[in-house]
User: Which sequence fits this backbone?
């Protein structure tokens, strides 16, 4: 019988103690084999608090036409089920009109979203992640099942993301070779972005390769170039 395991059953109750205190990572972003960007990320845990900072900058041929940078930041607590975002922000260097900020009120079960001068309230399911913390939540995965379900917010709304376990593979990257678990997002409609993620089993299940396949035809690959974790 096919297993269907919710995220709460997959993550360890002692997640706060299994997580690293610091991660820094660099990725190369490509499209059809051509470099279009570079991503720099950092994760810092201090006791039961965490901060994630991720910046993707145009690079290569794309930089000649679009010299821009997108920064994502998540801050919150480390709890028994992993990460619990408190604040999320998205900032675009060349177009601040698209900036998003969100705060998560877990006691009230509400997310407050600020976008283009307007504030809205969104229902907040338990264990919701934001656009950047969702990938770091995999660090708390203690065993894989056929399916992992995570509520995810882009700062404006909340959607349920389902990831299906595909296989285990040894993956070569510029940062080295890793034994990985491969998960693929299960899409429910033609407007959903397909996503694949490869998690390094001996590096806190950190993503070492990601592929995003946009329904509009843009396919991006993010490959790890450097990693420090402790």
Assistant:
């Amino acid at each position: 019988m096919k297993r269907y395991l919710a995220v709460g059953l997959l993550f360890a109750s002692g997640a706060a103690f299994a997580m690293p205190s610091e991660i820094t990572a660099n990725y190369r972003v490509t499209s059809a084999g051509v470099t279009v960007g570079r991503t720099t990320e950092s994760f810092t845990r201090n006791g039961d608090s965490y901060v994630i900072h991720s910046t993707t900058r145009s690079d290569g041929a794309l930089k000649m036409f679009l010299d821009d940078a997108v920064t994502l930041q998540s801050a919150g607590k480390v709890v028994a089920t992993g990460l619990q975002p408190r604040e999320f922000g998205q900032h675009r260097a060349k177009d601040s009109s698209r900036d998003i900020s969100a705060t998560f009120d877990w006691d009230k079960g509400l997310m407050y979203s600020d976008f283009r001068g307007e504030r809205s309230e969104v229902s907040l399911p338990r264990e919701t992640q934001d656009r950047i913390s969702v990938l770091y939540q995999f660090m708390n995965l203690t065993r894989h099942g056929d399916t992992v379900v995570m509520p995810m917010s882009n700062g404006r709304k909340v959607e349920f993301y389902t990831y299906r376990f595909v296989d285990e593979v040894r993956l070569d990257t510029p940062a080295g070779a890793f034994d990985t678990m491969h998960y693929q997002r299960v899409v429910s409609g033609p407007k959903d972005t397909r996503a694949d993620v490869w998690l390094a089993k001996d590096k806190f299940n950190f993503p070492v390769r990601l592929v995003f396949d946009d329904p509009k035809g843009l396919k991006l690959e993010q490959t790890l170039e450097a990693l420090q974790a402790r």
